Amino acid sequence: MRKRSRLAWSSAMTLLFLAFFLVFSLSSADEGAFIGVNIGTALSDMPSPTQVVALLKSQQIRHVRLYDADAGMLAALANSGIRVTVTVPNEQLLGVGQSNATAANWVTRNVLAHVPAVNITAIAIGSEVLTSLPNAAPVLVSALRFIHSALVAANLDRQIKVSTPHSSSIILDSFPPSQAFFNRSWEPVLVPMLKFLQSTNSYLMLNVYPYYDYMQSNGVVPLDYALFRPLPPNKEAVDANTLLHYTNVFDAVVDAAYFAMTSLNITNVPVVVMESGWPRKGDANEPDATVDNADTYNSNLIRHVLNNTGTPKHPGVPVSTYIYELYDEDLRPGALSEKYWGLFDANGVPVYTLHLTGSGLVLANDTTNQTYCIAKEGADSKMLQAALDWACGPGKVDCSAIVQGQPCYDPDTVEAHATYAFNAYYHQMGMGTGTCYFNGVAAITTTDPSHDTCLFPGSGGKNGTFVNGTSLAPSSNSTSTSVSSSSRCYGLMTAFKVIGVLLSSMILL
């Protein structure tokens, strides 16, 4: 048995760390890149706002983008903690961009009326205005400025960023990325827009669709390259100017945006991808719009983003991304594929289950509630031990199943025991937002970690029954007196209770 030292209780700082461990976990959960989801409403049987938010919560989705600022949806999102991007629709853009008063009124009605109950973090001004509504381009920058001024007046400009989503088609010669530049006919708009984003610490909103890059390349772009599938080194795309290697279209497009901004002397505006996805069904001329490809692309994209891989130009720099989209939209016009980008149908049933095992994800795409919280692979053992002790102590998890002689004692590793405790806490807390974080050493998976007679809370219970997350499977050797990392944890429970009393006393004082 591998020995692990007891925690030292020699300082007040240690006590405070443990007391505030969960709070810190929750507040840190959004560090790094995140995955969000777009919510379109072109459904013949659109779920109610309450149903939409229930689905978001069940899937641990913490970031959403609305294509408007619907009052009913915002009311349903109140007090959910979900971070929301609202949108000034294209049809309202001319009015907002031509009148400071109209913009201020828009902010009053659609933002001030809902914060702070609704966690609005960004306002998207229009959608692909330069390519879909070019007659409104002359007022786009003024719309950004007017909306931002209204936020400044309300002292919300630091909390809520203002930007505008662009189609990646405004970037010309996107490969090699180092030679990319924006369509120069749009520079009178793009230059002041980028300077606005820079001065307000905002970000470039970009829609990235490798599906269309693949479809329009006439065979030049390999399907595997579009889908994030592993490529042998000799198949990777190499930028001859920088010698950077690209293994997928997504990274190449994002880096093309960075290089295009650099060509305009803008070097410190980050990119957030507002739309990306893959359709699961299409017309006869769209043979690669399949369930398997949609699953492959979105699974690989989510894993790539949440691993904070970054891009070849900016490795490790987060590229937060919103998946297009939550629901299939059967009322969308155009090609058949336009209707089938969703992760769920109108009833909230997943149209396919994403393959996300081992990627530390928050989006399970699984309404059966069969998701589990596990110790993240490669996590620091000391942090795992501290988190394990917290879960079995103030976290009030019943860790008796991982005492020596009990069904979940083996394997006797801190990773295995932490996985049991993390998952028990996660299900004990109703799989709520932030309950599978543990200071960054935990991750959500759809793979049941149960093994042999060790059944985890949330399991189908093939080998036993669970009541309130506690295993009732038969145990053996229950009288063993050997000590494991878990039983040491139980010995600290009384100390934790004393600490709680002491901390309460300190607060009262």
From TrEMBL:
It is found in: Cell membrane. It is an enzyme of class 3 (hydrolase). GO terms for biological process: carbohydrate metabolic process; defense response. The keyword Lipoprotein applies. Keywords: Cell membrane, Disulfide bond, Glycoprotein, Glycosidase, GPI-anchor, Hydrolase, Lipoprotein, Membrane, Plant defense, Signal. One of its GO terms (molecular function) is glucan endo-1,3-beta-D-glucosidase activity. Residues 371-456 form the X8 domain. It comes from the Eukaryota. Pfam families: Glyco_hydro_17, X8. InterPro entries: GH, Glyco_hydro_17, Glyco_hydro_17_plant, X8. Its main location: membrane. Belongs to the glycosyl hydrolase 17 family. This is glucan endo-1,3-beta-D-glucosidase. The gene is LOC120249911.
